[in-house]
Amino acid sequence: MALSLLLASTRPPFLDRTHFKITHTNPKKLTFSSHPNFRNLPTLTFCSGSVHEESGHLPVTPPKPTSLDWDHNVLSTAASLYPLYVTAGGIFACFYPSAFSWFAKRGPASYSLSLGLIMLSMGLTLELKDLIALFMQRPLSILYGCVAQFTIMPAFGLIVSKALGLSPSLSVGLILLGCCPGGTASNVVTLLAQGDVPLSIVMTGCTTLGAVLLTPFLTKILAGTCVPVDAIGLSISTLQVVVVPILLGSYMQSKFPAAVKTVTPFTPLFAVLASSLLACSVFSENVVRLKSSMVAASLPSDASLILRIRSIFSGELGVIILAVLLLHCAGFFVGYISAVIGGFKEPQRRAISIEVGMQNSSLGVVLATSHFTSPMVALPPAMSAVIMNLMGSSLGFFWRYINPSDSEDTTQSQD
């Protein structure tokens, strides 16, 4: 969660101290045009990894990395290990669930507060005017992606829950997960996959703001037959823990830029640690029930490791993992196919696929713990925090080694 904040923190700080504007000419050549206030400075061109002055083709030595650059790199690397944190925390919760009791017993207030702080950190790196400007430049692709987000995942949440015969509580949890907006981790995965990052960022922002109405409305329609759903309460909670903190963070960025610039490098790591704590705490609350559903308790003490693992996945935990896997697989695959049908190019296809497939699982956890009596409702979103990020990261690494232009050329030759 909130890994998109890395996009702000990983930018080399020395670029902030120069007066050049980057002009993209081609993937292997970047031209730096001088700032209007420094028109007499020569134009610099990066070409094939070297820098030359266009006038005399003299080599220019790039600025040396400072200690601040290294600090940013360390923080960014630490924040990128989010799937590892959640996985390790989940395993730890299996054996020592009481380790998270100090946080879980204060829920749902502690869950709402942590998500609010995560969204505040996102708002600190978000300028609404830039978001609006990007939306005005490409409204069709953004609207298409947002519609795909709020149709594909909710529909497959219902389909998967019916196909697997999930209990009412787990069905509501899976449908609620499908109705959540796009997760901010999708932005970094899109960057890794050579997708359209601006499209991904704007889609995340728009679906997050739209979730105030759409998430409660869709959950009410699709899950209202299983258990009573308070759509108004869900809407108010979404407004409080998502929209208000984002707007507050954006306001603080515009009014206190110096203070925000100081804390911004630390916000990605804080966000992923808070998200990990949130997911692992919910998982720890359900460990006792999950263990009781496993046949592992009846296994002999000398049973093999393979037999123990098989027994774990044959219980209720295995069904939950399968349901979450199928939901996210459907999001990635159908999201990509819908972008192909829409006539988008490969970078946009990847961005829409990743954005549709990756949800704001932390919001699902907070809404589930705040508005539903059964703790099992929060389990699919909590498990999604691990499964979704592992799947998304794997897909991003796969696409990283496939040039988008090569994919388009292959598609055109087949047509």
TrEMBL record:
Pfam families: SBF (PF01758)
Keyword Flavoprotein: no
Localization in the cell: Membrane; Plastid, Chloroplast envelope
UniProt keyword annotations, A-Z: Membrane, Transmembrane, Transmembrane helix
InterPro entries for this protein: BilAc:Na_symport/Acr3 (IPR002657), Bilac:Na_transpt (IPR004710), Na+/solute_symporter_sf (IPR038770)
Membrane association type: Multi-pass membrane protein
Transmembrane segments: 82-103, 115-136, 142-160, 172-193, 199-219, 231-251, 263-284, 317-341, 382-402
PANTHER family attached to this UniProt entry: OS12G0170300 PROTEIN (PTHR10361:SF66), SODIUM-BILE ACID COTRANSPORTER (PTHR10361)
Record-stated family: Belongs to the bile acid:sodium symporter (BASS) (TC 2.A.28) family.
Protein name in the entry: Sodium/metabolite cotransporter BASS1, chloroplastic
Species name: Salix suchowensis
